[in-house]
Amino acid sequence: MDTWWFFPHLNAFLNGLSGVFLVAGFYFIKSGEREKHKVCMITALTVSAVFLTSYVTSKVVIGLDSVNFTAEGPIRWIYFFVLITHTVLAALITPFVLLTFWRAVKGRFEIHKKLARIVFPVWLYVSVTGVIVYLLLYQLFPPD
To answer: Does the predicted TM-score (pTM) go above 0.85?
Structure first.
């Protein structure tokens, strides 16, 4: 068994956990519970940072070789659509997540709110699709 077998599982868990805190944070801000929202969003950001560290570490330790998706038929197109949109949006959203967070830290809540309306659904999409990619690649259609 590969020494570093746990990385895909850990990374999917972290992506999913980040998504849970994003949804909870959304719920709390809509309920007017700003402190709970703040805790959830800081936790989501922290978990995402741990994910990014783990993901980069896995690429350094294991190498950049990717696991091939071997399934055929429509699921292959679905997988690659989800993978590509996940990857592109993950790269694009990161600075906006940090900017949105920074606006909140500085107390600039009007601009924070405007940014969050765009950033939140994209960040959530990236978290959820990270788990979907993992499920498709490692659980439903595992590599040979």
So the answer is: yes
